[in-house]
Amino acid sequence: MKNFNKLLYLVPFGILAACGAGNDSAGNTTEIENAIAIRVFNEGTPAANVHYQVLPSWYVADTTETSSVNYTYQGTTDTNGWVRIDRHQNGSYIINFTKGDSSIVLQYTLNNLNHEYTLDSASLEAVGAVKGLVDLPDSANYAWVAIQGTNEIVKTDSLGQFVIRKAPCGNLTVSAWDAQDMGAIGQTSTTVITNDTIDLGLIENPNKVIPENAIRIMPSELISDWMRPLSFPTVLVLRLTEDNFDFKKAAKDGSDIRLYDGSGNLVPFEIDGWDTTINSATLNIRVETATDTIRPWILMWGDKKAEKLKNVNVWKGLSDSLVSALNSVTVLNFETGGIYNDIPAPVVKYEWYVQAHSKATISDSLAANKMNGIEKADSSIFGKNVLHVQYSADTLGQYVVIGTRIAEHPHDLSRLDSVEVWIKGDGEYEIILETIVESDTNYKTTYKGTANKQWTRVAVKPEDFTNADNKSYHGWDITRNKITRFTIFVYRGKNIWIDNVKMYGINLDDLL
Questions:
Q1: Structural domains of the chain ordered from first start
Q2: Per-residue pLDDT at 406
Q3: What letter does residue 112 receive in the DSSP assignment?
């Protein structure tokens, strides 16, 4: 779409003073009167004989109307693509130009302070589409949805879903109202772009009563793009923080929480971490079908008479690949042979690094190019590549760091189940989760071990990290919601091999 919003209000009087009495013919007048002049183009060429229709911007199509509409003005552009209307009524209006499957809508206002409107570069574009969901009143089976100022109107389905398949390009206001009592439900504004489908999400009903101690949740907001295409059943994650939930009003362990779907049915979930000391909690929510995600959910708490929750295995029946995608993140596996870590999009990828500290050294080859540390795997379980670091760090205080940034800013990884690292070597190591932020404390939590000459799978759970020592290590409880980096410190050895670093119990949204 080109220049649909280029509105030039204050034009030379001579351009419009010649407008006549007809809708699109010229005449003579010396009075100051309302007038508009618009020139329409199609693929860069002035568009003749393009039909236009003018309606008040507040206009909503009549659902019972089956024939003609009483347009304020209508006609076609002239041979040069112009439409001129003089003696125009005061008010705010929508003019809709259409030709085949191309369109453009423009809004303008004429009043005592603004008598003239002109635009010399309106461009026809292929129509788009608008879809969304209406927050239906409890008693309604459907609602009406219309584009204001046009004759476009559709009926929702019983869930409140709608699609306007031929929406004119431009700035639009979409309104919905109750089909039973014709009361307004709500409205929203959007911009339709050529050949694009705009998803308006939920058109909320401000009159809908939300119970005390409850919040509304749109399931679609829990579905990230990286999860698509969706397969069902699946598990969605709801993260509760002090920004979207009042922990002071709920039970200390979250046991009074209930989740209801759009039809009032209980939605099964498990609490995967609940901590009021940092106001953080996570719910893993079982979703059986796509239909269950369409209408808003209600999260309630504090009702002692609420139906008792049943124990549920939210992951039952899900494929191993889906559970892995929803419940783990690969940090490093070196399969690409590149300089960046292996955390999938949409998380930003950062370089992995090898750094010697306190007069420790790494091999000259590795120091010259870290890529020289990637070598072919010696076992089929590791794919094709592993990282091999040759180093010297024998004196107390010397160490080599292997690591990568995993997030741009500190994240709460309280629900982490474990960190998995495959290690082989002849020295000691520390697996560390930490935060490195400028002008801030370097919070760290560590797990210490000794490498073996055989590949060993090391799975570190939160309780396995060492306790805080009030010096350099702060422990898991202090560090868990401040994590930005994964690192491995190695010392008192000569060789370390690293591969297949994964975090379980979190997913990509925990790092965004």
A1: 13-126 (2.60.40.10), 128-203 (2.60.40.1120), 214-318 (no CATH), 325-511 (2.60.120.430)
A2: 96
A3: S
**Please, what sign has the CA dihedral across residues 190, 194, 195, 196?**
negative
d(CA 219, CA 203): 14
What's the CA gap between 124 and 46, in Å, rounded? 10
Please give the pLDDT value at position 165: 93
Q: Which residues contact 39 (CB under 8 A, 6 or more apart)?
A: 46, 77, 80, 81, 82, 83, 119, 120, 121, 122
CB of 428 within 8 A of CB of 472? Answer: no
439 pLDDT band (50/70/90 cuts)?
low
For the record, the structure tokens of 76 come out as: 């076609």
What CA–CA distance (Å, rounded) separates 18 from 39? 16
- Pick from 64, 61, 184, 171: which is nearest to 134 by CA? 184
Give Cβ neighbours of residue 97 (< 8 Å, ≥ 6 apart). Answer: 40, 50, 51, 52, 77, 103, 104, 105, 106, 122, 124
The structure's pTM equals 0.77
Residues 60-107 have pLDDT tens digits of: 988 765 557 899 999 999 999 999 999 999 999 999 999 999 999 999
